[in-house]
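Ligand-bound model needed. zinc ion.
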Amino acid sequence: MCSAKNLSRREFLAGTGALLLGNAIGAAAEPIIDIHQHVHYAARPDDVLVAHQRAMGITHTILLPAGTPAFGTSTHQGKTNGLQAQCAGNEACYNIAKQYPGEFTFGSNEVPDLPDAVQEIEKYLKMGARVIGELKFGVDCDSKEMQQVYQLAEEHNVPVLMHWQFQMFNYNFERFPKMLEKYPKVNFIGHAQTWWANIDKNHSDQSILYPKNKVMPGGLTDRLLSDYPNMFGDMSAGSGLLSMTRDEDHARAFLARHQDKLLYGSDCDDHIGSGEKCQGAQTIAEIRKLAGSKEIERKILYGNAKKLFKI
Ligand SMILES: [Zn+2]
Ligand SMILES: [Zn+2]
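Prediction:
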């Protein structure tokens, strides 16, 4: 009965306008910034990525590129190319951001020990990249190569996002405070297993990447967030979600304590964008459940990222 055919063009346009306005109001009331997604993640097609983000209710997504395929120790002889998940590089992220202005933003990345790493990262920073990352390479966190990246971040005033994984990516987390002190103007964003496992003061066996025990406050991650104004936390991935679900009483206090430092990210590779199969959607739900106030929830889902990434 009520097909577009039966409506006059004017009525049809009026209806569409109301619908668009409705969506715009919904989005404006509760915008969400996702600081951590990838293009071609586990071979996910680009149109499915866009639909996935919209299904999650994301109004702005930051796409984090992989480095150029390389075959040295920093990429484990090539085994961890594409961020170990078939993720695409700078050009692909840039292209999607250009295709969806205002909805997608891109980062810049390169394997840090490639000879032209600095030039490659800088090229995309000059094109408008808002972050360097995801830095997920087998290098010391205080190596000469990584320090070149930190210096570049300082020069271009963009944050650096690092994947911490014991004996795999960004070695020697315990030495990182020195870098936070040496580069006080660089905002560092911590992500992944070793970052989140170390919220717990009792986390001693670093080979355990997904600890499920209750959390004793005061772990290295907790202290870095408290002690350094330039340290931020990325809630994405299974490790970020687990940091909350493993001990919800602790998480409520943690979200309140670091409410100006935590940033929502999804980092999920599913094709759905809702329900049990989508970890990013579950992470949003968990933040909403545990944030002690609407103000804290809005900072973590939106406000902190808007400020840090200048969106
Ligand atoms: Zn990661
Ligand atoms: Zn998902």
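The chain has one domain: 9-308.
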